[in-house]
From TrEMBL:
Its cofactor is Fe(2+). It is an enzyme of class 1 (oxidoreductase). Its EC number is 1.13.11.93. Pfam families: HGLS (PF07063). It comes from Morus notabilis. GO terms for molecular function: dioxygenase activity. Belongs to the 2-oxoadipate dioxygenase/decarboxylase family. This is 2-oxoadipate dioxygenase/decarboxylase. PANTHER family: 2-OXOADIPATE DIOXYGENASE_DECARBOXYLASE, CHLOROPLASTIC, DUF1338 DOMAIN-CONTAINING PROTEIN. Keywords: Dioxygenase, Iron, Oxidoreductase.
Length: 329
């Protein structure tokens, strides 16, 4: 026997809570799965990048509380369906919204960033269990590269078949979707674009996570204090454009460590050190129109949102050889 919901007009007080509960369970279930995928991406990232793991533990210990992520960032090849869209589709499916495009002509890159869904359930946890992060996905404009670089990139993305449809899975597993490259091809790309060389050996791996400095509770919520704390504990920060990268409006402040390196065995048997990932820090200041709000009432939407080309351009170089080989200050 089939059952029908009571007539809305006669049973409003019964129907609305029921529908709300069904919607909550639907959102909650999908969000739980989504966060599990992010957690797998984070696990791969932390296992490969001891600096990021150590800094997260260090800040967490100093804070005695939660750490919130400002954003997650990924790199892609803009060719044959392996660009931004290959990863963005996963986030869009789970309620993310496309916001703005950024261009980096000198580096032959473009990027899109996405804001998290406003109906996310969990807000009080730490890390992956806290507020969902923004997502920043960049891609190399392959058609602007030299013929030789294009040949190398299209060779490996071509060998990958339709694996671009499973970019998020590749990131969560920490697997390349193409064969390991030749060392000579890695070197060729590195001479032309260190971004391209990084992507060839790291694929869809999480490029970096970003600690939201202003959501910390101790004195470390000031990014200058956080940077000092990181350096005093022996970690090297990206100095390109200065340790602290500041947007023209002065409201977005960013810094990052230098990427870790790992041993990588290429398809020809050559084993060499290649750059992995790094960790970033961001402080978003309160927008001028909300300066009169009491500090306890300030929420994330009262702060400077988005990204800045000048800042991001320098942050990209956290994986570059010049920063990796630079001696700590």
């Amino acid at each position: 026997m089939a059952f029908a919901l009571p007539l809305l007009a006669d049973n409003y007080s019964l129907v609305v809570p029921l529908l709300a509960r069904l919607m909550y369970e639907r959102i909650s279930g999908a969000e739980s799965f989504f966060r599990s995928v992010l957690a797998s991406m984070e696990t791969v990232y932390l296992n490969r990048n001891p600096t990021a793991k150590a800094i997260l533990e260090l800040v967490h210990s100093a804070e005695h509380g939660r750490i919130c992520y400002d954003h997650f960032a990924f790199r892609t090849f803009g060719v044959n369906g392996y660009g931004i869209d290959s990863l963005a589709s996963f986030f869009l499916d789970f309620g993310y919204t496309l916001r703005d495009e950024l261009r980096f002509p000198a580096k032959k890159l473009k990027a899109l960033w996405f804001s998290p869904p406003k109906n996310a359930i969990t807000e009080d946890g730490s890390g992956i269990s806290g507020p969902l992060p923004r997502v920043f996905i960049s891609e190399l404009l392959v058609d602007q590269m030299s013929p030789e670089a294009q040949r190398i990139i299209t060779k490996y993305t071509g060998l990958s078949g339709t694996a671009n449809k499973h970019a998020a899975l590749a990131s969560a597993l920490g697997s390349l979707t193409w064969e390991k490259p030749l060392y000579s091809e890695f070197q060729q790309l590195a001479r032309e674009s260190e971004y391209a060389a990084w992507t060839l050996v790291n694929g869809y791996a999480l490029n970096h996570v970003t600690i939201s400095a202003h959501q910390l509770k101790s004195h470390l919520r000031n990014i200058k204090s956080l940077d000092q704390f990181i350096e005093e504990n022996g970690f090297k920060l990206n100095s390109e454009g200065g340790i602290l990268k500041v947007s023209p409006d002065g409201l977005l402040l960013q810094s990052s460590t230098v990427a870790d390196s790992t041993s990588f065995t290429f398809s020809d048997g050559t084993t060499e050190s290649v750059p992995c990932s790094y960790i970033e820090f961001a402080e978003r200041l309160v927008l001028p129109q909300f300066n009169n709000l009491p500090e306890k009432e300030v929420k994330e939407h009262h702060r400077r949102d988005g990204f800045e080309v000048g800042n991001a351009d320098k942050i990209f170089e956290s994986t570059y050889k010049e920063q990796l080989t630079r001696k700590a200050a």
